[in-house]
C-alpha cells in the first residue's frame, strides 16, 4: 500500500516561524491561512498585509498578529516536551489529513512519527458506553490493528478509551482537543503516556496551554475523520459528538461504518439512524477492511507548500466591486463560486474582499467553499 505523499514538503526554519505567526494571528483559521498564502504567495507576505486588510474590512482596531518572538517561544516549548510542529507533506503529518480543505497548516505531533503515516481507521462512540459496546470496540480495534491499521480516536471516556487500550501494541493515535500539555479528561494522562510509551502518537492543532472548550471538540473530530480512511461509530445517541465525526467523514469523502444496536438502547439510536441514512452496517473488522481496500493503494497527492511569490496589487478591489460582493453576503451561507458569478468581479478581487471581512471578524467560512456574514 502506498501512502507516501508525491510531493514532500520541508519548511525552512524561517518559513515555519512565519507559518506559525500567521495561523496564531486573530481571525486566521486553516481555510483562511491557505487562501492567504495562495493569494499573496507566502505566509510572510500575508502577515504584512493583515493590518490593512482588517482595516478595509471594517475592523475597529487591528487584530493581534503573533510576533516572531512568540512563535519562537512556542516552537522551543513544544520541542522541550517532544512535540514537532509539522506542515502538510512533512514526514509525520498524517498524509490523508493534509487533503482536507481545513487541514491544520502546522500540526503538533508527538510520539513515533512512523505510526502517523500508517493507514488509519477512526473508532469513536459514546462516553457512557455499554458493556457490549466496549467489548465490541476492543474486538474490532484489535482485529484492525493486527491487520496493519493504526487506530485513531479522541482520548475520551468510553469507546475512545477502549479503542486506544486495545491497540497499544499495534499502534494508536490520540487526537487532542486542547494543547499537548492540557489533556482532557485529566484522568487519561496515564493512558496518553501508555500510548506514547508503546510506540503510538498524539496530535493537536492547538497551542501549548490551550484548555479545551466546547467548540474545540468538533474541531478535534474533523481531525479524527480527516486522518482516516474511514470511521467506525460504535455507539452514539442522538446529538452525539460521534455523529459530528460521521458528518465530517461524509464531507471529507471518508467511509462511515455504523455498528447496529438495540432499538431499546438510546446509545444506539444515532448509529441505527446512520445505517438508515446509508452508512455501512458493520459487525466485524472484515466489513471495514473490504470497504477501504480499493482506496488504500492510491498515492496521496499533496500540494506544494507555498506557491511562487507574485504581486497581488492588481487584485485590489475598487469601491464598487467591494460593495457588490458585500451586498450579496448575509447570514445564510453562499458558495464562493456563486458569489463571484453573481457579483461579476474577478475571482482574485472577491477573495481579497473576503479576506478583509474575515480579518475584521465579520465573515465565517464553512465547508464546501461556503461563506456567510457573522
Tell me what you see in this structure:
With 374 residues, the chain is an alpha/beta fold. The protein has 3 domains: 74 residues, no CATH class; 200 residues, Rossmann fold (3-Layer(aba) Sandwich); 57 residues, Arc Repressor Mutant, subunit A (Orthogonal Bundle), CATH 1.10.10.10. Helix content is 43%, strand content 12%. The chain contains 15 helices and 12 strands. A 9-stranded mixed sheet has the order 1-2-6-5-4-3-7-8-9. It is globular, with a radius of gyration of 21 Å.
**Relative strand content:** 5-15%
Main beta-sheet annotation: 9 strands, mixed
Number of helices: 15
CATH hierarchy class name of the largest domain = Alpha Beta
Could you list the spans in which at least 5 consecutive residues all have pLDDT below 50? Answer: 1-7
CATH topology of the largest domain: Rossmann fold
Instruction: Supply Rg.
Output: 21 Å
The percent of residues in helical segments reads: 40-55%
Q: Please state how the strands of the largest beta sheet are arranged side by side.
A: 1-2-6-5-4-3-7-8-9
Shape-level CATH architecture of the largest domain:
3-Layer(aba) Sandwich
Mean pLDDT: 91
Count of folded domains = 3
Structural class: alpha/beta
SSE ordering? HHHHEEHEHEHEHEHEHEHEHHEHHEE
What is the global morphology?
A: globular
Amino acid at each position: 500500500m502506498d501512502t507516501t505523499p508525491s510531493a514532500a514538503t520541508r519548511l525552512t526554519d524561517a518559513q515555519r516561524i512565519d507559518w506559525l505567526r500567521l495561523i496564531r494571528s486573530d481571525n486566521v483559521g486553516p481555510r483562511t491561512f491557505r487562501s492567504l498564502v495562495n493569494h499573496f504567495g507566502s505566509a510572510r507576505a500575508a502577515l504584512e498585509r493583515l493590518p490593512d486588510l482588517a482595516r478595509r474590512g471594517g475592523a475597529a482596531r487591528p487584530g493581534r498578529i503573533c510576533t516572531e518572538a512568540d512563535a519562537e517561544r512556542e516552537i522551543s516549548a513544544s520541542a522541550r516536551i517532544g512535540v514537532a510542529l509539522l506542515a502538510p507533506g512533512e514526514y509525520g503529518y498524517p498524509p490523508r489529513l493534509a487533503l482536507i480543505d481545513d487541514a491544520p497548516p502546522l500540526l503538533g505531533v508527538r510520539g513515533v512519527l512512523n505510526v502517523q503515516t500508517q493507514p488509519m481507521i477512526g473508532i469513536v462512540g459514546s462516553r457512557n458506553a455499554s458493556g457490549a459496546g466496549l467489548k465490541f470496540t476492543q474486538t474490532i480495534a484489535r482485529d484492525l490493528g493486527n491487520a496493519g491499521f493504526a487506530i485513531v480516536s479522541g482520548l475520551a471516556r468510553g469507546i475512545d478509551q477502549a479503542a486506544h487500550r486495545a491497540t497499544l501494541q499495534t499502534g494508536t493515535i490520540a487526537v487532542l482537543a486542547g494543547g499537548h500539555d492540557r489533556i482532557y479528561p485529566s484522568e487519561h494522562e496515564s493512558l496518553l503516556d501508555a500510548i506514547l510509551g508503546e510506540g503510538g502518537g498524539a496530535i493537536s492543532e492547538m497551542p501549548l496551554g490551550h484548555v479545551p472548550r466546547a467548540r474545540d471538540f468538533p474541531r478535534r473530530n474533523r481531525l479524527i475523520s480527516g486522518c482516516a480512511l474511514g470511521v467506525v461509530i460504535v455507539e452514539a445517541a442522538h446529538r452525539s459528538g460521534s455523529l459530528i465525526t460521521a458528518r465530517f467523514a461524509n464531507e471529507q469523502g471518508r467511509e462511515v461504518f455504523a455498528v447496529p444496536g438495540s432499538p431499546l438502547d438510546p446509545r444506539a439510536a444515532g448509529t441505527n439512524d446512520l445505517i438508515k441514512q446509508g452508512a455501512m452496517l458493520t459487525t466485524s473488522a472484515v466489513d471495514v477492511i473490504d470497504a477501504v481496500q480499493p482506496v488504500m493503494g492510491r498515492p496521496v497527492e499533496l500540494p506544494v507548500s507555498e506557491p511562487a511569490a507574485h504581486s497581488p496589487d492588481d487584485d485590489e478591489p475598487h469601491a464598487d466591486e467591494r460593495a457588490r460582493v458585500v451586498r450579496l453576503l448575509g447570514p445564510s451561507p453562499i458558495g464562493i463560486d456563486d458569489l463571484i458569478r453573481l457579483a461579476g468581479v474577478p475571482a482574485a478581487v472577491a477573495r481579497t474582499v473576503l479576506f478583509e471581512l474575515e480579518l475584521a471578524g465579520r465573515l465565517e467560512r464553512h465547508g464546501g467553499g461556503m461563506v456567510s456574514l457573522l
